[in-house]
């Protein structure tokens, strides 16, 4: 299971081997929502996910 | 990848049949014959209604249990059911017979491929009331390894958190008096308004992260020149994690003493927060990505059966078709294509859970 750095706090975030680009993970240290990202050179990294949206409910 | 085909006619027919039976809380039994007919038409062989009225349809016989859970009750206010310009209209089209129909379609489509799980699609009762259907399942010791709650999240929204809800009835008594001499009178109505002012000042949040409050009913007085000696109202307070109903009730008790009122708790639902890494959230994201869709994380300002069913498993999220701003409105309608896409997402989710190597 590879480790990638959280772009917010720098902590190590473990990402499963079978992760798909676009999958979201939460940093265990700072709680940031992070998107698994693959650049054009096929290098994996994490970027801050789009802002969490509010929605209605019952 | 090859997405499973969901037939448009079947999707429309399933949803329309569910919508044509008007089922506000307390009247869900009216759906019984329709539920059994719909399940039979979709090829389910195992379907039933439990003693509190919750509806179920099951497929597969594996050792792990995965549930797709929505609700069969709707808010009161019947609407004409119609299909027009790619949309299905009717009370519950968004909240939540649309999501429920997509779940039934998905279970039917996935049934023959299941190897390791038992899939249960459930339509619970009283979600729009006090959540009795879900609470009863928890009381009875329901066991499940992963649950998706079918609520409108715009199809690709994944709800990981709902706020809690506290509903209270407020009562006040006073001497009353003549409106011509209010300085020697005592008003029960003003006592309640005093309490409401205290609540609003303390819990008048404007954002998801804050505690919000609403004065929802108020009854007092019967004559223009008589100061009321009795008054009654209701207050609903919504609160996010990590607030709890206990600390809010404790504060309310202080306010009640100051304002000389009495309160009665009508309903308590604690907030829920799950993690984007939980197994259900992950499988659902992967299902969307495999279909070329981009998952979004949403947090709900309201409550749902997820607040209750998180007691069954931490592997729980809410996700479903429909624009939640239309829920509870007279314009309730859902896009047919969204029902079909949601059904495909649920099928891929079920496949992902069925093939998961890790123990849940």
From TrEMBL, chain A:
Which domain of life does the protein's organism represent? Archaea
What InterPro entries does its record include? Answer: LysW
Which PANTHER family does the entry link to?
A: ALPHA-AMINOADIPATE_GLUTAMATE CARRIER PROTEIN LYSW, LYSINE BIOSYNTHESIS PROTEIN-RELATED-RELATED
- Listed name of the protein: Sulfonate ABC transporter
Q: Name one Pfam family in it.
A: Zn_ribbon_LysW
